[in-house]
Amino acid sequence: MTLVSIIFAGILTYFTRMTMVALISRDMLGDKIKAILEYVPSAVFPAIIFPGIFINDYGTFIEMNDPKIFGALVAVIVGYFSKNIIATILAGLVSYWFLIFVIFS
Amino acid sequence: MLSKKQLFTRGMLDISPHMLSVIPFGIICGAIGVELGFNPYLVYAMSFIIFGGASQIVFLQLLSGGASSLVAVTSVGIINSRHLLYGAVLSEYLEKLSFIKKLLISYVIVDQGFAESNKFFKKNKSEEYLHYHLIGTGCTMWVCWQIATLSGIILGSFLPEELGLKFAIPLTFIAIVVQDLKKIDHVIVMITCGLSSLLFFDAPFKSYIIISPVIALFVASLLLRLKK
After folding, report:
1. Region of residue B169 (left: phi > 0; alpha: psi -120 to 50; beta: else)
2. Is the Cβ of A53 closer than 8 Å to some Cβ of chain B?
3. Half-sphere exposure of residue B92, counting CA atoms within 13 Å on the CB side?
4. Could you tell me if A104 lies within 8 Å of chain B, comparing CB atoms?
5. Which of A19, B74, B100, B221 is deepest in the core (most CB within 10 A)?
6. Is residue A1's pLDDT more than 60?
7. What is the mean pLDDT of chain A?
8. Under 8 Å CB-to-CB from A64, ≥6 apart: which residues?
């Protein structure tokens, strides 16, 4: 790993952040595009969520009884009703730890 | 009308719950780098130069697995291309800023900051110094990320791997999108994205992270057409 490749990765990342804010005028985006962009969070974050739950460190699918599925379900239910970020994350982690350290140990 | 300081503070407060997952994630990110045998200074340099958690871990994994620098850099670019979408959404609120300010503020646009600031912007469109909220979320995130990755590099192997703290990452993003489960169109878009990400998980350069949002946004555009 050289510093040069990190710098290239950094510049590339900075451009992904800066291009639409500073280089491209918003007027180039029509109302239709803006309406579609409303869906961006729902269209991006599941690509981080699903593999984080269903795919293990070795890049293969987990079993259906994996504790992560249970933890994620608890997080969804707690998050939906509590509307609280800390409660959501803690509920997921604690139920996951309960399964791996108490039940499956 | 809120002052710059009030908006900055509000941004800090709005993003602070996310630190519960960002700090463990940063610690893991630093620790993984050292465990994979990389120079600690270079592992830290990534947090400053790239400043993007998931992409930093993928970068480390790819290089330690023998991938070429070109593949690793391309992969970082693809993973972080989601920022283009964030920028497009945020530009509506940042267009009055000078070019230099736009260049500076862009450095601190991150997932969690985008989610919280965008939520705030939608509700407070009339505020004059709106961008200070984004600076607040971004700077909080930046400082915590630097401290967390540094601690991870120092802690190194002390952190028990059995805790499975990496699981906090999907949980964080569940917390962000869970309220949108109330809207059926959003649910369809989320499921499309999630299933595509699993289907294309083995696509080269970890490109599932951009392929699946593109498919999901295409579905969203179809849904919009149906709505009319």
Report:
1. alpha
2. yes
3. 21
4. no
5. B74
6. no
7. 88
8. none
Query: Quick one: what percent of chain B has pLDDT higher than 70?
Result: 97
pLDDT category of residue B65 using cuts at 50, 70 and 90: low
A99 shares a domain with A48: yes
Residue written as tokens 């399964």?
A99
Amino acid at B198: L
Mean pLDDT calculated for residue range B107-123: 94
Structure confidence by residue, pLDDT tens digits, B165-187: 778 878 888 988 999 999 999 99
Cross-chain Cβ contact A18/B221 below 8 Å? no
Instruction: Indicate if A56 and A16 belong to the same structural domain.
Output: no
Asked if A14 and A50 sit in the same domain, the reply is no
pLDDT, one tens digit per residue, over B34-55 is 877 889 999 999 999 999 987 8
The dihedrals phi and psi of A25, each to the nearest 5 degrees, come to -70, 140
Residues 165-224 of B with CB under 8 A from A: 166-181, 185-186, 189-198, 201-202, 208-209, 212-213, 216-217, 220-221, 224
Q: Which residues of B touch A76 (CB under 8 A)?
A: 174, 178, 181
| Of residues B216, B221, B223, the one with CA closest to residue B82 | B216
Question: How do residues A41-88 score in pLDDT, each as one tens digit?
Answer: 898 889 889 998 999 877 789 988 899 999 999 999 999 999 888 889
Chain centre to alpha carbon of residue B121: 18
Question: What is the pTM assigned to this prediction?
Answer: 0.75
- Write down the ipTM of this complex: 0.85
Q: Could you list the residue range(s) of the whole structural domain that residue A6 is in?
A: 1-28
Alpha-carbon gap: B2 to the closest alpha carbon of chain A (Å): 23
